[in-house]
Amino acid sequence: MVGSRIIPSRYQDSVVLMRVASRLREMPGIDEAALFMGSEANKAILRANGLATSEAEKARPEDLIIAVRLDSPDEEPGATPESATLQAPRLSLEEALCRPKICSTKKKQSAEAETRRLYSLDAALRAATRATLVFISLPGRYAAAEARKALRAGKHVFLFSDNVPLEDERSLKQEACSRGLFCMGPDCGSAMLNGIGLGFTNAVSRGRIGLVTSSGTGLQALACYLDRLGEGISHAVGVGGRDCSPEVGALMTKAALLALDADSKTELVIIVSKAVSPGVMADLESFRAGLKTSVLFWA
Asked: N or C terminus: fewer CB in 10 A for the chain?
């Protein structure tokens, strides 16, 4: 028996949603649980996994869908998926979904961290003056404006958001390149900079190999494989799945290659790419010829 609950206009990134879904699956009586934003692609995933409901089908892209399948509803008289979706996730929602993003700072006179709630990028930039990178996870139609604001503040951008219009992606990356900054993404799921993981990453050794990737899972798979071989990662720059499209022209891939080529700890660069158009591939082949660091393609 499957039921769903819709929370209107409640955006959360997929990392948070997967964590909450995992909590729900551990609760008695719940066989499967999923939390997705109401995009058409996510509704298709719910249908494929037998978690779609008529209510979920009506959700808008900015709405949050909570779907559960009860394990054995007959064991508890009166139990329904609707009651489960209303009651089971309440603790998780209150603790994980409804809590605003925070910035923690430590006062010199106290060992305890002070928690400050920040509701805008402007406030975060004022509070974290030493920050060099902004991690953005918003609905696609809002993400580009915040990414542009971050770039104009002189910050690198890790753009986790998907559904960002292609013309915005190209414009953002052009601006980033003109300012000597990274705009990783959109739909960038993984990166490793100076040993710090962004998005989905694995604990792997630091080393001499740099990665430039349009596939987050490809980055993780290759980084783990190299780690098992005794190699390590200097930096891994995610560029988003459309960077090597003709429309974007590998703007961020080239920027990452230049940065890694200038890094004394990087001796080899591997490009992990999805399908690359012939014109872009020819351009990249020509571009790597001007670098002193060896570059391999893994597509």
From this structure: C
Question: 3-state class of 145 per DSSP?
Answer: helix
Query: Residue 237's closest CA among 261, 216, 217?
Result: 216
Q: What CA–CA distance (Å, rounded) separates 144 from 174?
A: 13
Angle at 78 between CA 72 and CA 82, to 5 degrees: 80
Task: Give CA–CA dist 50/52, Å, rounded.
Answer: 6
Q: Phi/psi at 292 (nearest 5 deg)?
A: -85, -20
Spatial separation of the C-alpha atoms in residues 21 and 35, rounded to whole Å: 6
The domains of the chain, with CATH numbers, are: 2-97 (3.30.70), 118-187 (3.40.50.720), 188-299 (3.40.50.261)
Alpha carbons 244 and 296: distance in angstroms, whole number: 15
CA atoms of 192 and 204, how far apart (whole Å): 10
In the predicted structure, residue 37 carries a pLDDT above the cut 70: yes
Please state whether the predicted TM-score (pTM) of the whole model is above 0.90.
no
* Pairwise CA distance, residues 223 & 229, whole Å: 10
Higher pLDDT, 154 or 102: 154
d(CA 255, CA 182): 7
Structure tokens at 90: 């309440």
Determine the angle formed by the axes of helices 251-261 and 278-288, rounding to 10 degrees: 20
Q: How far is CA 70 from CA 22, 26, 44, 91, in A?
A: 15, 12, 20, 18
Determine if the peptide bond prior to 89 is cis (ω within 30°).
Answer: no
Per-residue pLDDT tens over the stretch 279-291:
999 999 999 999 9
| For the chain, the helix, strand and coil percentages under 3-state DSSP, each to the nearest 5 | 35, 25, 40
Q: Which residue type sits at 110?
A: S
Closest CA relative to residue 21, chosen from 74, 83, 80, 65: 65
